[in-house]
User: What shape does this take?
Amino acid sequence: MPTPIAEARSTSLRNHLALVALRQGEGNGDLLAGLLRTVYLTYLVLDGDDTGSMDEIALAERALRGCVDNYSAQHCWQIPEASCASIEAVLRMHDRQLAAVPVHRLEAAGRRLSQILATGDFPQISPVPRR
Assistant: This one.
């Protein structure tokens, strides 16, 4: 069974509001970390054959990591407008996953992400090479 509707809506709202805050320069490290976690969970649940989604996920990760670099240089948690489209696309993917993917798969992805992060590493996301 997929995520209960109320929980899926709450998660979706939290993610989309975090993006709004970061887009407006009103974010913080916790909001950014939540979005980055959502990007990684979306990646870990994604079907490996979905190359277009992989590209969006890689772009979203790059945008969020760029926000960290920006904070280091300018002390402002802000995502440039041009970078928001890929993050929005990944949030929509995650919303669809919450509505359709069985909870046990989402939980397994969460455990896998925790294992990866516990090593001090991040999931290795890279866009699919063009042929």
